[in-house]
Amino acid sequence: MDQSxxxxxxxxxxxxxxxRASEPAARTVDYRHLTSSFPLARGxxxxxxxxxxxxxxxxxxxxxxxxxxxxxxDLLGKAxxxxxNRQVRFGRDLVEAAIAxxxxxxxxxxxxxxxxxxxxxxxxxxxxxPPYAMDTARGKRSGTFEDFRNFIRLAQxxxxxxxxxxxxxxxxxxxxxxxLEMMRVQMLDSDKPxxxxxxxxxxxxxxxxxxxxRHGLDEEAFRARPRTYTVINTNSPLILDVPMCQGLIDxxxxxxxxxxxxxxxxxxxxxxxxxxALVQQHAEMLAGLVLTQTVRPGAPVVYxxxxxxxDMRSGAPAFGTPEYVRACWGTGQLARLVDLPWRSSASCxxxxxxxxxxxxxxxxxxxxxxxxxxxxxxxxxxxxxGLSASYEKFILDIxxxxxxxxxxxxxxxxxxxxxxxxxREVGSGGHFFGAAHTLERYRTAYYTxxxxxWSNFGQWEEAGGRTATERAHDLWRQVLADFxxxxxxxxxxxxxxxxxxxxxxxxxxxxxx
Length: 513
Description:
It is built from 18 helices and 20 strands. By secondary structure, the chain is α/β, with parallel strands linked by helices. The protein has one domain (46-407): Alpha-Beta Barrel (TIM Barrel). An eight-stranded mixed β-sheet has the order 1-7-18-17-15-13-11-10. A four-stranded mixed β-sheet has the order 3-4-2-12. The chain has a four-stranded mixed β-sheet with strand order 9-8-20-19. α2 crosses α11 (322-337), α5 (145-157) packs parallel to α6 (175-189) and α6 packs parallel to α7 (201-215). The protein is globular.
């Protein structure tokens, strides 16, 4: 095509598109329920996975796990475990019974609907737990209540985020009262299934009561259906500490979800070999599983995998590594062996929302998805190995999550997909911009980018030459400015506010450390 005619033809094509009497409807998407069709990766052979499982059973039977909670040891002893001082050893029959009684799938209910946990269902959860918040305008700082609320609102704003996480630790609220404000925000600014920290029976009881108020439930109705979840990190190697045991007991008794996630860092808190680290991870998870099923057979449990390696020069955790991916694959195989849903993470160690952060996060995410993870935590906003939650990183992570969600959509197929009429119309050497087939479908044919800039260099430069991180800064600010909380009955808001005010006046509850 001659250079002088190209702009005129492009303008003519735009006129044809804009001038159509009936343009196709704009593309709409719904990423609230995702089912993966990605092929499952096999990091190890079936025989090797069976060997890891057998080795974990041997660890539980011969070495056992240190259980620091008196009540948990009593429960396990009565169930048939061998208790010597704080050490608890688990017979294979006890472990196999716990595996048999735990559900392979269950439904998690939020104010706006349900999520199916297990099988090939996939849920994304944002960053959770960092003590610091970060953005490019203010830098790194201690997390505040405002930051906590902002990240809950960002999670609510995107349908590719399916559950709320613990967001940022609000350091400006007394630890005895923190759980009350955190749960209030989750209940009133989000309608998605929520997270509760297992920080002692009293704090968990307060959080459960706020949830019951939000859903209009008595205790029996609340126990009948999973509505909230916690993450239980074992103290690796081979310790279940007091608050974590209490959390497992409280959540199992209430019929709520425990994601049992050993903190196994290969070379530091776990053996330096990935198979050895998986043996320890599997043993610690199974010990926690036995406790939940001893409290309440059938209590919902998710197998948590967090195994990665460390930088052997400094001892610092490393994420987004080949070893992390291989651990994800092995964890998926082990979870399927014991027929449990499983959780992974999209984590990184980069200290800024830069290229390193993106490739590490994407490597972790790829490992989780190809490993068949049902829940991917820290999928948006995680930085600095989990020490910081980044506003810009949250937005940057939404784009690839949407890519994944798009790939999980069923393939659209109708009589026009093979485009034979378009091929006949255009023939050899033409173009398809103005073809009838294109004009009928151009608005819905492709994924629409959120952060990515698809303009050419000249257009990008004329618009200011802004990087993706700079665009992300503007986007998170705009999302928060436009935020509208879900509708909540005024009577429910009043009841929650009254409960929080009363418990605050009473001094809240001490966290158990």
